[in-house]
Amino acid sequence: MLKILGRTSSLNVRKVLWTCDELGLAYEREDWGAGYASTKDPAFLALNPNALVPVILDEHGPLWESNTICRYLASRHDIGQALLPNEPRARAGVEQWMDWQATELNTAWRYAFAGLVRRMPGFDDPEQIAASVRAWNAAMTVLERQLDRTGAFAAGEAFTLADIVLGVSVHRWAASPIDRDMLPAVAAYYVRLRGRAAFGPWALDEVP
Hints:
It is a single chain. The chain is an alpha+beta fold. The chain has 2 domains: about 1-75, CATH 3.40.30.10; about 90-200, Glutathione S-transferase Yfyf (Class Pi), Chain A, domain 2 (Up-down Bundle). It contains 7 helices and 4 strands. The chain has helices at about 10-25, 40-45, 65-75, 90-115, 125-150, 160-175, 185-195, and strands spanning about 1-5, 25-30, 55-60, 60-65. A 4-stranded mixed β-sheet has the order 2-1-3-4, covered by helices on one side. α1 crosses α6 and α4 runs antiparallel to α5 (about 125-150). It is globular.
């Protein structure tokens, strides 16, 4: 059976869990990371030398990097190709937004979230927090324009993997104690995502 290593308070672990639930995959999960088993444990480092969650284990061995894991699971188990199309241009459209989430969007919110929610030492500079919040809202405005254009989901009319990885980030933006810009298309998108049964268990309150 598929095994997932990582705590549910991790945004990146939630991506994988939501993907599994959309695909109807059975899995076992073990808590690893902050507050649980240490990812610096030699046994974990043998699976992921970066000491980060999530890691999955199946008959082919370990795999890490959350977006890569989501792509792998969809490619292997999504018979209808609904989450990740095989056609090159359609697939690239999905992966474009997945990569944007992992780079531009996540980079924007990292300092503010670490300071305001995680309360991590070294992330308490008010000016840097304010700059991170501005960058976060600016990135979300990029998503707002895309959703306004499609009228539905990130890559077009259909729900895809892009919406899973973006959805957990939109939830973090909506739940964090920051001043948010008024983004009606994002707000409507968030309602659509929360209507999916597979998202419900992972639309959790953020855990410090």
